[in-house]
Design brief:
The chain has one domain (about 5-160). The protein contains 4 helices and no strands. The longest helix has about 45 residues, at about 5-50. The protein starts with 6 loop residues before the first helix and ends in a 9-residue tail after the last helix. The chain is elongated and about 80 Å long. It is an all-alpha fold.
Length: about 160
């Protein structure tokens, strides 16, 4: 008799199952919406690049920026989808996403410095500050990744 579940345990199990399926449905909707956003950004990036007009250097910078945004969005979608399959939410993919975002800022700032015309002193300093912040973020996140690796929380095989 002690092995049979009570009505309360049965209802609790059903409620837990319903909540779990709702959460899974929301997570799949998040992945689907991220994929739609990535596709939309990619289409608009290619469209803007093909209609660059007379500002080819600006079109190159915008295309690189848009493609890096798509890569970041797809990395986030892959991380969320991996969470669905393993029920684990690792920190390492978010560090990699942060590094990609920092590299994107560095590339945008350096492209702005090299491809744009003459800059005012204020614009030049703002771009240098943006470049310095991007480098700082990348270095900080790389240190975090190294700490994770040397602490034994990730293996060499886990890094993509």
């Amino acid at each position: 008799m002690a092995d049979e579940p009570t009505n309360r345990e049965i209802h609790s199990f059903r409620a837990d199952s319903i909540v779990r399926w709702i959460i899974i449905g929301i997570e799949y909707a998040i992945v689907a919406s991220l994929l739609l956003v990535a596709g939309d950004v990619l289409v608009h990036t290619v469209d803007r690049f093909l209609r660059y007009g007379h500002a080819f250097s600006d079109a190159i910078v915008a295309a690189i920026d848009g493609i890096l945004v798509v890569i970041i969005i797809l990395d986030i979608a892959r991380t969320v989808f991996g969470h669905l399959r393993t029920a684990v939410f690792p920190v390492m993919p978010f560090i990699v996403i942060g590094i990609l975002a920092g590299v994107r800022d560095i590339l945008s700032a350096s492209a702005h410095l090299t491809l744009s015309g003459p800059l005012s002193q204020r614009e030049f300093y703002d771009t240098l500050i943006s470049l310095g912040v991007g480098v700082g973020v990348v270095v900080f996140l790389l240190l975090g990744l190294l700490i994770l690796r040397f602490s034994g929380h990730i293996d060499d095989d886990d890094v993509d």
